Each structure stands twice: as structure tokens, then as C-alpha cells.
Amino acid sequence: MADSDAPNAADSLSREERAFLTALNDLGVRYLLVGMSAALLQGATLATEDINLWFEDIADERIGEAARRAGAAWVTRMQPPRLAGAAGERFDVVTTMDGLPDFAAEYAGSIAFDLGGLAIRVLPLQRIIASKRAAGRAKDRAALVLLEATARLLQATAKRGRAPGPKEGRKRRS
């Protein structure tokens, strides 16, 4: 997998968001970036306002510790839990992904990205497409046309021997 030098994704995280993700990594919490944010990192040209995180175990107490380190709170009285405070304004917690197996299976096939020194794992574009197709919501059906076009472009570029490169961020070898 090739790298891209575009820095925009790393710049789009607030200080608090970066602190939360860094704390999750430091504490060894397994999570995936999923949904449109993950698709954007892989070259999709759609927009999203939220950042969807899928945790291996939402009851993991280390998530609360990561929130505290970022100046936020991990609110577990609601389902799914929420991150409260400046670090949590854009984060949404996902507990399942329509049409996909469990977290462990998807984590095993995830892509490692380096976002300006922040290591994250991302659900691959083809898996995002599969989930959106299974969800069948109107907004997902609308996004599928562009997501599938992006996937075709990345596949064609890879076949020609050029690095497809994500739009933002830097892919790392897993």
C-alpha cells in the first residue's frame, strides 16, 4: 500500500479529539474509525460532520480513562455511550455495523493509517460500502454511488501500478 503526503486529515482533528485518540492508543484500547470519516481518508469526496468510532468493548474502563485524559467524560448511562465535552462533540459511538460480522473480524482486516503521528485503524472502503448497502437508509443509498466510484478508481489506479493513496493521511503497512 502506498502512502500519501496530504496533511489535511490530521489538521481536521481538534486538540481534544487528537488527545482522546492518543489516549485510547496509549491505553491499548482497540477501536476502528468507520463510516464516512473512514471513507474520506481513503479518497471519497463526500462530506460528514461526525467521526464514527467502533470499539471492541464499550464497557472497557480504559475508554473512560482516555476521556478523562482528554478533558472529557465517558457517559455510559445511555446506549450507546457518548463522549461528553469538547473532545466528544463530533465522535459518535457505533456498536455494530449493518451487514458486517463482529468487531474482531473487521479489525483483522482493517487498514493502519498515520494521521500526522497519530496511529489509527480504519475500516476498508469496500467494507464501508457493504455496510451502507446493508443498512439501506436513504442517505446511505445516496452515498453509495460516489463510494463505489471511488472504490473503482482506487482499484484501477492500483492495477496500473500507481499508488492509489488516500485523499488525506498516510497509510501504513499493517
Quick overview:
The chain has helices at 8-11, 15-27, 35-41, 61-69, 103-108, 125-135, 138-159, and strands spanning 31-34, 51-55, 73-75, 82-84, 91-94, 111-115, 118-122, 170-172. The protein is an alpha+beta fold and 174 residues long.
Which features does this protein show?
3-stranded antiparallel beta sheet, globular, 174 residues, disordered N terminus, alpha+beta, 18% strand
Overall description:
This protein has helices at residues 8-11, 15-27, 35-41, 61-69, 103-108, 125-135, 138-159; strands at 31-34, 51-55, 73-75, 82-84, 91-94, 111-115, 118-122, 170-172. By secondary structure, the chain is of the alpha+beta class. The termini are close together.
* Gap between N and C termini: 9 Å
Give the overall silhouette.
Answer: globular
Radius of gyration: 16 Å
Stretches where pLDDT is under 50 for at least 5 consecutive residues are 1-7
Q: Which structural class is indicated by helix and strand composition? A: alpha+beta
Beta-sheet strand percentage? 15-25%
Q: Mean of the pLDDT scores?
A: 87
Question: What count of helical segments does DSSP give?
Answer: 7
The H/E string reads HHEHEHEEEHEEHHE
Q: Going across the major beta sheet, what is the strand order?
A: 1-2-5
Task: Characterize the largest beta sheet: strand count, sense, and whether it forms a barrel.
Answer: 3 strands, mixed
Number of strand segments: 8
Helix content: 40-55%
